[in-house]
């Protein structure tokens, strides 16, 4: 196609949204590579150690939006040591040097410091949007820098980060001239907020559509905020503690009556059934509802609320909703696409909250369901088979039976057949998490049927290396495989080493792989980083003396064009 | 379900009687595996690192909440001498004695509680705020720090008349 003028190629390439398509285009020929790289505006780096930041900036100098992910997924569950890595600093520094036109930055599971945030705030004059998800390492001082220096900031979205509280003054750092905010989410902050400053900020940002408050914001303050921002589409309430028949309660009712555009509600910290009536008027329009931080809302009050939300597409709740509550969801929320049911009593007596019955009810009522995260104490094969039949559109299916390795309580059988039914029926399944008692058979089924599977999470499952091999052989589109506490060893690891080049990463912890196996993998595949994470003291001292037979506690393998890491701590060995 | 009779499985350490089907024990594990349904819930969950797979952010938020719930009670009854019925309030909603007093004035509106003089519980008018603590004793409101008050207060009583004066 060398007779095609570049402008035409560029115009055509502009229609391509997905990273995958653009990546494919760039491999056609040198000319197309050039056109594509100079016209790419959104860049996504799924693993921050797969490539050095400078290379990314050099290749895409006109980048406007950058997304980077750091730690592996199991870091969410404390399986990755605190200072393993995933530092934002080199990325922000490289971007400051190479792409000063950057407008949006999204970081997930990375370590971000206050210095990083200050550098970010000062380096990009057109900066518009900062989204930090599950990050740590910064404090409210860093937020103050963002507020102070990012003129024209549209979005500051902090999701589930660990943020050190250095006081409430950061919010006051938004200058009076800041009127551009569209989205502000500080729900994860633990400390007090300067509510006066917040109310004034909200009042002067007419385009504000999404606001998520933290637990420190009282109902009185919420009332004043809603009075000034009635056009909100997405609201995360603060502390919803309020008593009936108080002034605050009446104002709350009026406040919600005024919110005609509200489509998404979350927060409800400390909420009791008292506050629910205030929310009734907006329920009929809600498409998203997150009650997963409100354990006091249960039983009939919760059901009454749910029965008003017939347009709901996304629902996050605690398992105290019970099977009865899920039946109510099934009969009311016909448009439901995503459901997450979290456990409310993690360390307790294991009283039945939701069971397989609730899930079956949901599946029969909500045929559009495509994304599920379900924590329960038991599941049966029959139920899973029924769910598979009722809901063939699952793209994400994550089932967590809280007792590791628990069989079907009715038949005492493993859950191979149930999950088998899911992968057979759901042709578009991209993400799957398994639990319960499972043998190698379930992996055979997954390898055979889960053609589009991209991410698989396995825990306490399988009998032998065959299980892992079925998956590696069968799932052509597998990108991320994470395994814990399974009897998979070196044979499985080394069966098809080139497979890992087609994947983003492999995680194995508390399995049967040995140091020898990992060394062999590293030797055969220089295009991979083979990381051993060894936290025990003895390993430090006797590193050289460890034999090949030593069992590896945590293994993280990922493809990379940046050999090794310069920032790995002592307990991480890159073979 | 047949467990494959592999060498590894035969020599595997496991909990439970031989011959019964128990989940595979992972090597070197400090974790208690579920032996049977009834016993397992509390034990095994508490000991397995990173299980259940819930984001630490969410786990921490529940832990903090549990701790708080143990300190602060829930709703307490409020009675006022002479009033025909009682009310119930959630003490955690208020940040201090002043707010509590204002809320009670709102609630029992027709009976003015007046301004405080001296101790919070004592008023210039004829009412005193008292509370019943964990031991069942009737105490004057205002002597102890707020946090201590809400954790020990079981019931509120607005007293009037001669009884109230005696508490001043």
Describe this structure in words.
The complex is a heterodimer of chains A (575) and B (168). Chain A is α/β, with parallel strands linked by helices and 575 residues long. In chain A, the strands form two sheets. Chain A has a 21-stranded mixed beta sheet, covered by helices on one side. In chain A, strands 5-7 form a two-stranded parallel ribbon. In chain A, helix 14 (356-365) links the parallel strand 14 (338-342) and strand 15. In chain A, helix 16 (416-425) runs parallel beside helix 17 (440-449). The longest helix of chain A has 11 residues, at 247-257. In chain B, strand 3 (127-132) and strand 4 (138-140) form a beta hairpin. Helix content of chain B is 33%, strand content 15%. Chain B is of the alpha+beta class and 168 residues long. Chain B has a domain at 78-112 and 125-163: Ubiquitin-like (UB roll) (Roll). The longest helix of chain B has 16 residues, at 56-71. Chain B is built from six helices and five strands; from the N terminus they run αααββαββαβα. Chain B has a five-stranded mixed beta sheet. The chains are: A alpha/beta (575), B alpha+beta (168). Chains A and B meet through loops of A and helix 2, helix 3 and helix 4 of B. Chain B: Aux/IAA proteins are short-lived transcriptional factors that function as repressors of early auxin response genes at low auxin concentrations. Chain B: Pfam families: AUX_IAA. Chain B: InterPro entries: AUX/IAA_dom (IPR033389), AUX_IAA (IPR003311), PB1-like (IPR053793). Chain B: Residues 32-41 have a biased composition (Basic and acidic residues).
